[in-house]
Design a protein that fits this description.
The protein has about 300 residues and is of the alpha+beta class. The chain folds into 2 domains: about 120 residues, FAD/NAD(P)-binding domain; about 150 residues, Polyamine Oxidase, Chain A, domain 2 (Alpha-Beta Complex). The chain is built from 9 helices and 17 strands. Strands 12-13-14-11-15 form a 5-stranded antiparallel sheet. Helix 1 runs parallel beside helix 9. The longest helix is centred in the last third of the chain and has 15 residues. The radius of gyration is 20 Å and the shape is globular. The two termini are about 20 Å apart. The model has no long low-confidence stretch (mean pLDDT about 95).
Length: about 300
């Protein structure tokens, strides 16, 4: 979201912009997976709107019927979801941009970058929106030294992991409003994607708590998924499960962030953004890119 948001602003300002994404599609944690012709959001589940800058974009999405309101019984304010999956939102951002997928950045060399596929790209300004631990690894591989201030900024940002399980069901769950937040359990969140309206074949997404995810992150995913599903069998009965898949999010949630929406590496033309900068979450990632784009 941050990279796409920055690219959209910069393109509108007349700059030549290329977006590189290591994935098979855009969006990162704004992800929707297709399983046996069913769909499940397995990254970010919903978002809210607090700022006028983000509201302008949300109004645009509403006009194009890309998002829908979601009223969770445990939340007072309205939440929003991708009407056909959360990944439709970054796809909208990317629709007018020059985006190259399956391009993983592995080296920065002066004013050019190299990717895992062997390609080289020159730049005047470089914006990096990957999680900060990966930025540190990238700079070490590139033999670029951080200043004391650079390192202080990067090392203050912390992330929690999350293990996600997506289950195809025979019929929808009976969870009121289609989503429930759990406390002090292995599973912290359950979403009924059928009730959200993104899939015709019922599916459920369950997210493990941060503590459980950290404890079981490197364990066998089949065992972890079975354990998670068993812990919520009052909501998703085993007889209702057709199949399931799992996904590890190592940098799921930036719990400690740099207070400003972006940061420039000292004495360079390299800028850092993402949900680890500013207010965090979906809106914070969008705003990080927005303000970055406006500054260049």
């Amino acid at each position: 979201m941050a990279g796409l948001s920055a690219a959209r602003i910069l393109t509108r300002k007349g700059h030549e912009v290329t977006v590189l994404d290591k994935g098979r599609g855009v969006g990162g944690r704004m992800s929707t997976r297709t399983i046996e012709n069913a769909k499940a959001d397995h990254g970010a589940q919903y978002f809210s709107v607090k700022t006028p800058e983000f509201q302008v974009f949300i109004s645009e999405l509403q006009s194009d019927s890309i998002i829908a309101e979601w009223h969770l019984i445990q939340r007072d304010n309205v939440r929003y979801v991708g009407a056909k999956g959360m990944n439709t939102i970054p796809k909208k951002l990317a629709s007018t941009l020059n985006v190259l997928i399956n391009e993983k950045l592995i080296l920065i060399d002066n004013n050019s970058i190299k990717t895992e596929s062997g390609n080289t790209y020159d730049f005047d300004n470089l914006i990096i929106t990957i999680p900060t631990p990966q930025i540190i690894d990238l700079f070490q591989s590139s033999e670029i030294e951080f200043s004391t201030n650079d390192r202080m900024v990067l090392e203050q940002i912390e992330y929690q992991p999350c293990i996600a399980v997506m289950a195809v069901l025979k019929q929808p769950t009976e969870i009121v409003s289609g989503g429930i937040i759990l406390e002090n359990q292995p599973v912290a969140w359950i979403a009924d994607n059928f009730q959200k309206g993104i899939t015709e074949i019922p599916t459920a997404t369950i997210h493990a708590s941060a503590a459980y995810s950290a404890k079981r992150f490197d364990d066998d995913l089949q065992d972890v998924a079975n354990d998670m599903l068993l812990s919520v069998n009052q909501y998703i009965v085993p007889e209702n499960i057709v199949s399931f898949q799992t996904h590890r999010w190592k940098f799921s949630n930036a719990t400690k962030r740099f207070e400003k929406p972006f940061y420039q590496i000292e004495n360079t033309n390299i800028f850092l953004g993402g949900d680890g900068f500013g207010i965090g979450n979906v809106e914070g990632a969008f705003l990080s890119g927005y303000y970055l784009g406006m500054s260049l």
